[in-house]
Amino acid sequence: xxxxxxxxxxxxxxxxxxxxxxxxxxxxxxxxxxxxxxxxxxxxxxxxxxxxxxxxxxxxxxxxxxxxxxxxxxxxxxxxxxxxxxxxxxxxxxxxxxxxxxxxxxxxxxxxxxxxxxxxxxxxxxxxxxxxxxxxxxxxxxxxxxxxxxxxxxxxxxxxxxxxxxxxxxxxxxxxxxxxxxxxxxxxxxxxxxxxxxxxxxxxxxxxxxxxxxxxxxxxxxx
Length: 223
Fold this sequence. Notes:
single chain, about 220 residues, alpha/beta, 2-enoyl-CoA Hydratase, Chain A, domain 1, five-stranded parallel β-sheet, three-stranded mixed β-sheet, 9 helices, 10 strands, globular, ClpP/TepA, serine-type endopeptidase activity, hydrolase
């Protein structure tokens, strides 16, 4: 991944002006939406107060991806990345990933946004990360890609359901094949591995523990 300085200087519309305390507060408030529907937005504390989960994460510059990555999850993640960059263009953002599924188009939208923002980005694999979401962990800045002790990484081909007329099925099959090659290309870029080797590994699910993922080039360190 390109350095934060290079990313900031090479793209149009880079936000460089310092924001006032009030402006930063507004940006953060807009960034902290209701979040994914299956994750509680607030939790009760022992003294009866409610804690805003996503607000607390945003204040620590953390983006958490903990469910299937669809259009809503991707939109939320991209918005948070932009808001955090607006708040502090040089502050590090940490992305925690615990996903075993995701639409490739949605995953690559987040990847593009990770490349677009000027902030340094660290990633953490938690639980099990499989399929296209593996790309998100591997896309973190080199030296800042982590895995928890029990995390598992799974290299696999993108899934797709083919339906419709014979012509439509052929079109869908062609696009599915393109997605598979694109995923191989991303992983090869982040790991330095040969594309043919990756295609063979992804033809059948390949499971890795943290140390295996480090040795393979998907991660840099264990937490």
